[in-house]
Amino acid sequence: ALYRQMTAQGTQAKLPPVLLVQINEESLQKDSVTLIEQNLDRQYLAKVVDRAAKSDSSVIGINYLLFRHQPSRDRFLEKSLEAATKSGKQLVFAATQDVQSYQSWVTALPEFTQFGSSGDMDLLGDPAFYARLIGDTSTETEMLPFSYQIVRSYNPQALDRRNPRLYFQPI
Q1: What's the Cα-to-Cα distance from 70 to each of 41, 108, 121, 127, rounded to whole Å?
Q2: What is the dihedral of CA 8, 13, 17, 22, to 10 degrees?
Q3: Pick from 69, 63, 123, 131: which is nearest to 93 by CA?
Q4: pLDDT in tens, 85-106
Q5: Residue 169 above 50 pLDDT?
Q6: What angle do CA 130, 134, 136 make, to 5 degrees?
Q7: In 10 A of CB 30, how many CB atoms?
Q8: What does the buried/exposed string (b/e) look like for 77-100 if buried means 16 or more CB atoms within 10 Å of the residue's CB?
Q9: If you average pLDDT over every residue of the chain, what do you get?
Q10: pLDDT band, very low/low/confident/very high, at 16 (cuts 50, 70, 90)
Q11: pLDDT tens digits, one per residue of 36-45
């Protein structure tokens, strides 16, 4: 360690591969954002996506359900998502299981999901996933957790079973 420090080897700070942007009450007040029918203003979210698209991160995850239309503002977000994907960003959207049927998923609107994939936003998700390997979804009713989809988008080699360092192991 002393040799590396003296020769300045291995001391270059790396940028983290994930940019976490937290939208909270303070940030909404600072930017004078109002909720539209209890939903985050799509135009504001579009600005957040635009700023995230300028970062060095290769994946943008939106852990917010975008299943309701905002007719006058959806187009702003759609344009930002399209621009982000054209610049090489991967997009992951939050989804949650439909509590009435448990057979389908509440996902982002199709005009948004056309630009990316979806992942289960529930904190604990399906308990069966704790004993599964990433990528082992066998039916249409199963979905990987949101954080797995982020890793999967960032590092497609994480699905390669031949490389145990990059493949999620059961806990």
Answers
A1: 8, 12, 21, 34
A2: 170
A3: 63
A4: 999 999 999 999 888 877 789 9
A5: no
A6: 90
A7: 9
A8: bbebbeebbeeebbbbbbbbbeee
A9: 79
A10: low
A11: 888 999 999 9
pTM over 0.90: no
pLDDT of residue 145: 83
Under 8 Å CB-to-CB from 80, ≥6 apart: which residues? Answer: 45, 46, 47, 49, 50, 53
CB 64 within 8 A of CB 91: no
Q: How many CA atoms lie within 13 A of 116 on its CB side?
A: 35
CB 59 within 8 A of CB 18: yes
C-alpha distances in Å from residue 44, one per residue of 6, 61, 100: 47, 16, 31
pLDDT tens digits along 108-122: 999 999 999 998 888
Contact 37, 67 (CB under 8 A): no
> What is d(CA 154, CA 12) in angstroms, rounded to the nearest whole number?
22
Phi, psi at 36, each rounded to 5°: -110, 110
Helix 42-53, helix 74-86: angle, nearest 10: 10
Structure tokens at 119: 């992942």
